[in-house]
Input
Amino acid sequence: MGKYLRGVIKSIRRNLMTFKYSYNTIVYTGEEYSAQSTRVAKYGYDAIELVGEPDWYNFKEVNKINGDNGIKVSSICSIFMEGRDLVHPEKSERQKAIDYCREIADMTAEVGGHTFIVAPSPVGKMRALASEEEERKWAVENIQKVGEYAGTVGVNISIEPWNRYETYFFNRLDQAVDILDQLDLSNAGIHGDTFHMAIDEKNIAEAYRKTGSKLNHTHMADSNRAAPGQGHTDFLPILQTLKDINFSGYLTMELIPAVSDPFACIRGGKAEEFKDKYTELSIKHLKDIESRLK
Ligand code: LER
Ligand code: MN
Output
């Protein structure tokens, strides 16, 4: 089937379905990009989420392979590890984090992505290094700078809260909305990851409902961060809420093996079931639920 026809079929299907699906490729780390993109397309995803490490990719090749496979890039999952801290007490450290985010904004634009993830401080930083007041001021100032830059290259930012075991900074969507409301940006929104939300929200569906049109990206994972359907999160009320609030972003599977450091798979781990098996099971489970929504 030609590339044009595949594109037409995809766009008809997209208009008939409520949701667009994407897969975060952190668990594919180490594979050739063509294998990653081909797998995601094979199981019926609309898009792929790339890891926020620009040096790993040849953007021209990414665009060519994705075009051939009839998929898009939904988003870039920025990697906020040590050295990428927008609220660090040292100005030069904050600047390093801003520069990193700008690089990710450029990457997002170059691969035709819709948004990239922004978090104020790195995964695993478990206590503040300055006063709460100062850190919040830096978070607002620097996310504003990153968002403004993202606007100049035509992409959005999505602010993601993580659970209490990954960060002290904020853990719930309403806390991220607090920061978002202090920004003067039309290209910023909130990102809700069901794995983190299963830990720190009272009710995942209600948190999405309250966030409403401010929600611009999601990560879908079951309670154990495996494929939706492999844990105890009930995705029916969650997807019903996303439909009710007219969520138009991507349902992006971000699945990570059961290890305390979510970036362990970058360094090479045993994530075999997160390749074909979970890529297939995740979308099957959510599409089955989608077909039952009111
Ligand atoms: C990133 O999207 C995330 O959810 C964090 O847990 C870091 O991987
Ligand atoms: Mn996430």
Notes: The mean pLDDT is 95. The longest strand covers residues 72-78.
